[in-house]
Amino acid sequence: MNIHRMRNFFLEMNVIPEQIGVLQSFCKDYVNYRKIMLLLKSLDKRSNEDFFISISNSCVLSCVTSWCLLFGNPKNNKIHWHRSAPENGVSIDGEVVDNSEYKIIVGSILSNACSRHDKILDQYVFEMVCFRNKYAAHRDIGEYRPLPFLNAAFGVASAYMSWLSDEIFWAQPLETLEELQVSYESIVDSVLIVHNINAVQL
Question: What is the pTM of this model?
């Protein structure tokens, strides 16, 4: 294990980079989904509508499965947020690990982020995991779950990324999901503008 003392907790630094990669991918899929849904409203049933619907659906499924890796069932996911802070052990500096308050404090941060979208975290996690298990990752015939609103998922993921940014001693500031969302949206917009120009020309 690669346990380091950070500002408030001892963190497993083999887990954190994997989490950050998944969070960044989740953010990009979330932006793609939202942008494509806006584009679909303006396509007016053009022949390429199916293409964008297919991309949008793929982004949704990826959003759900990525989010559940960090915030779904902690028993099944090695990079779940519970795994960031081992309950016991010894740090690389020989300190005895004490993360007794970790799940309480970080759980409260995530719950508050979820409540801003009028959702209760435990219930929302259940909805996301059910959609993942019964549709996104597996398929139960005739028992489809509705897609949960992804705004709450982004809020929870963003809150966790911001906590990582504050908790860990980074050599360079860690880009938050809000910052990534803004910078990536400009990239997507530039691509969609090119598409619209080409569509008009055709």
Answer: 0.90
